[in-house]
């Protein structure tokens, strides 16, 4: 396999990689809301112009709103509507859901049996465009119960979203969620 570009993505002390159609892509930088870290040497210029980038970010925001509505409504199909048909999702507990249909069914099972009536709050977001049709979005979120305004202990997670643009439409190709847990101090 031939690797055409390598970029690094570091979230805290965790480094993640995605294999994108023969291109290994890793992205590097600090997580901060809507921040774009400095480009590494020899990196390709950002694809598109500012208007394109703003439209793409608006599309990501709309996908997030749809996903949040699906979560709040406890509707697996609505939650999964933000994914490609061949998508995959790794849940906070390590379950691996393959295909949009499996995401809808799996999330409905979680909503029916394990997830309280909550809404999601996005605490920060980092977007890295790999090319004109591929982006990595890393978000830190938490769950809020009705009447809560602050994230409660144990409800924060970091998710990595591989976004792909097909036929002019952005959708999630892959979603990996990790619950944040404090490590014990020795």
Describe the protein.
The protein is an alpha+beta fold and 186 residues long. Helix content is 23%, strand content 38%. It contains 3 helices and 10 strands. The chain has helices spanning 50-72, 76-80, 100-113; strands spanning 9-11, 14-16, 18-20, 23-25, 83-90, 96-98, 118-131, 134-145, 157-166, 169-179. The strands form 3 sheets. Strands 6-5-10-9-8-7 form a 6-stranded mixed beta sheet. Strand 9 (157-166) and strand 10 form a beta hairpin. The longest helix has 23 residues, at 50-72. The protein is globular, with a radius of gyration of 17 Å.
On the 0-100 scale, what is the average pLDDT? Answer: 80
| SS elements, strand count | 10
- Proportion of β residues? 35-45%
SS content category: alpha+beta
Radius of gyration: 17 Å
Task: Write out the strand line-up for the largest beta sheet, numbering strands in chain order.
Answer: 6-5-10-9-8-7
For the sheet with most strands, the description reads: 6 strands, mixed
């Amino acid at each position: 396999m031939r690797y055409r570009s390598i970029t690094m993505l570091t979230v805290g002390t965790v480094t993640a990689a995605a294999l994108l159609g023969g291109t290994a892509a890793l992205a590097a930088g600090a997580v901060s809301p809507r921040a774009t870290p400095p480009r590494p040497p020899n990196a390709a210029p950002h694809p598109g112009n500012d208007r394109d980038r703003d439209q793409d970010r608006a599309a990501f925001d709309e996908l997030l709103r749809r996903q949040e509505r699906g979560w709040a409504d406890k509707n697996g199909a609505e939650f999964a509507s933000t994914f490609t048909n061949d998508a995959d999702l790794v849940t906070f507990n390590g379950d691996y859901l393959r295909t949009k249909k499996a995401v809808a069914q799996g999330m409905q099972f979680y909503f029916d049996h394990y997830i309280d009536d909550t809404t999601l709050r996005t605490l920060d977001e980092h977007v890295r465009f790999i090319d004109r049709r591929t982006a990595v979005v890393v978000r830190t979120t938490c769950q809020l119960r009705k009447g809560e305004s602050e994230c409660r202990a144990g409800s924060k997670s970091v998710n990595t979203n591989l976004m792909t643009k097909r036929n002019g439409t952005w959708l999630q190709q892959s979603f990996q969620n990790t619950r944040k847990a404090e490590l014990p101090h020795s």
